[in-house]
Input
Amino acid sequence: MSIANLCRQATTAGLFMLLASGVAVAQSNGRQSSAPDLASKAMASASKRVEAAIPVVHQLQADARMQPLLQQAKGMLIVPSYGRAALGVGVQGGGALLLVRRSDGNWSGPAFYNLGGLTLGLQAGAEGGPIVMLLNNDKAVNAVMKKNNFSLNAAAGLTVVNWSKMAQGTVGIGDVVAWSGTKGLFGDVVAVGLSDIRFNQHLTDAFYGRALSPKDFAAGNIDDPHALPLQQALSEASATLK
Output
């Protein structure tokens, strides 16, 4: 083989290696840039959910009938916006925040959850809106904290009552009290429930910048500056009047 041919082959091989190296670097950079993008989007989504929960807490606080219940609650599942109800049962929709009350009366930072469906009493054709499930006792809180996937209904051994159908003198009769900011969302039944509530690992980790589990929230020691406005709003809403 001539020297000229050898030179041409060497040049071709060199160009090929250079191109391959460039593609590899581009792919590597693409992977590196996509990871921060995904994390940033998850953080934005989590922060938006926390911010959306604050006016729901203010709405609860404005309902004078809810004050005794807020004062005694051990935990709270806040759904800032439940999806539009279509046919009445098993409708999917929405994300939730779970907070537990600390021994000093203040509230922990929120854990993030995704919701399954309302199991009973969903008003056909009703507009969606905010939902709050108040956990009235340790039984209800423990049922939530022991699992990544849980339900708040009779099948889970919990009494879940519809606040809008409760007489004023029966506050506290249920393990869980369901409240909605949308009139008639739960229909006319006394007992309601939420099923298939799943811990959202991705949003929780993105919001706090570290890996956490539901058990980490059980003691109420999880905090983050981004969650402070929600925690403060809830502490004010549930404070015992003097």
